[in-house]
Specification:
Layout (H helix, E strand, L loop, with lengths): L1 H29 L2 E7 L19 E6 L6 E7 L3 E4 L4 E9 L2 H6 L2 E2 L8 E3 L5 H6 L1 H15 L7 E2 L6 E10 L10 E9 L2 E7 L2 E2 L4 E12 L1 E3 L4 E2 L3 E11 L2 E8 L9 E2 L1 E8 L3 E8 L11 E4 L3 E2 L10 E7 L8 E2 L2
Parallel strand pairs: 1-10, 8-16, 11-21, 12-22, 18-24, 20-23
Antiparallel strand pairs: 1-4, 2-3, 2-5, 5-9, 6-7, 7-14, 9-10, 11-17, 13-16, 13-19, 14-15, 16-17, 19-20
């Protein structure tokens, strides 16, 4: 009886060892891939050393089947890269910043599809729409006067900078020589968002300005990460501007200009609220400033005049609309 029990124990030990030996190469291979990642820091109008809070804290790495375009494996690394849990094979890879703050303001949808994975922003809230109701009503009335009935408009919040890297047909070998170290994938993640600055130079009566809100039309709604393409849906973006002496200034982020026909316009509308509560709409065609503009700086030299309010505690909508200069005829993207 003792001899039989010993043989049973020995057989069990051999079986365990054989299973361990069979699984070990796969386990070694899964973690023998390393991502060398670089974050592109040359961003126009967005020096990263001034925006450390927006630098990515971690990156998500998605691997897609090249034949079906479906997501098969995912992992997370630091911005400098790290080891990946991915089996051997041929993959399309997308790496993107996955911080909570960025995901909240610039979420990603359709992540399961390489072709349809899309970064976008949400429309402004109902509360914001309520605060801007007079502004929106003035714009609608102005567009109706100039161009007929105003179509349905999407007014979106601005995206935050989202860093993305993509590599096609990454071939991960089955066997990696341990003497050579891990199999390495090298890539660079760059932002899919642009930052523009705006400056209105000649403001008369700036001391009477309480606040300035702005809406710019003719921007794109989203960016497809796998295809590295802008969407074909136009939106308008909301922003606030600051008063600096006799000028107005500000910045806005965008996925880019809507790639439409040359006849389509990009319109900047400013709502200036004076210290008496009056609101004044200023309308400017800035289409030409989005062509061959490497500095991504929008300058407006036409004069804005804000008269001293008749009362400092009043309120209400000022009915005047200043066109700065007439943008001419064309299709306005809204």
């Amino acid at each position: 009886m003792r001899r039989r029990i010993n043989w049973s124990i020995a057989a069990g030990i051999v079986a365990v060892l054989l299973v361990s030996c069979e699984r070990r190469p796969l386990s070694d291979q899964v973690y023998n891939v390393y991502l060398d990642l670089e974050i592109e820091d040359d961003i126009v109008n967005y020096p990263l050393d001034e925006h450390d809070e927006w630098l990515p804290e971690r990156m998500k790495v998605n691997f897609y089947d090249p034949q079906t375009g479906t997501l098969e494996h995912e992992d997370y690394v630091k911005p400098q890269g790290g080891y990946l849990n991915v089996p051997p094979g041929n993959w399309h890879m997308i790496v993107y910043s996955f911080d909570y703050d960025v995901q909240e303001s610039t979420p990603v949808r359709n992540e399961g599809s390489h072709a349809d994975m899309e970064a976008y922003t949400n429309e402004i809230s109902d509360f914001q729409k309520g605060q801007l109701s007079q502004f929106l009503a003035m714009r609608a009335e102005m567009y109706a006067t100039k161009n007929g009935e105003m179509p349905q408009e999407k007014i979106k919040n601005q995206p935050e900078h989202l860093f993305v890297a993509r590599e096609m047909n990454v071939e991960i070998p089955v066997q990696v020589d341990s003497d050579d170290g891990p199999f390495r994938i090298s890539t660079t993640a760059g932002t899919v968002v642009e930052t523009y600055t705006i400056e209105v130079h000649d403001v008369i009566g700036a001391q009477y300005i309480s606040s300035v809100s702005a809406i710019i039309s003719g921007m794109v709604e989203s960016h497809f990460l796998g295809r590295n393409e802008k969407s074909d849906v136009p939106v308008s973006l909301f922003m606030d501007l600051d008063v600096n002496g006799t000028s107005l200034s500000g910045k806005f982020n965008t996925f880019g200009k809507f790639p439409g026909a040359e006849s389509e316009l990009i319109i900047l509308d400013l709502l200036v609220t004076d210290t008496g509560g009056g609101e004044h709409l200023y309308h400017k065609d800035v289409t030409d400033q989005f062509r061959d503009n490497d500095s991504q700086h929008i300058q407006i030299t036409d004069r804005i005049e804000v008269e001293e309010p008749e009362n400092s505690g009043g309120g209400g909508l000022a009915p005047d609309v200043d066109d700065w200069d007439n943008g001419g005829e064309g299709n306005i993207i809204i």
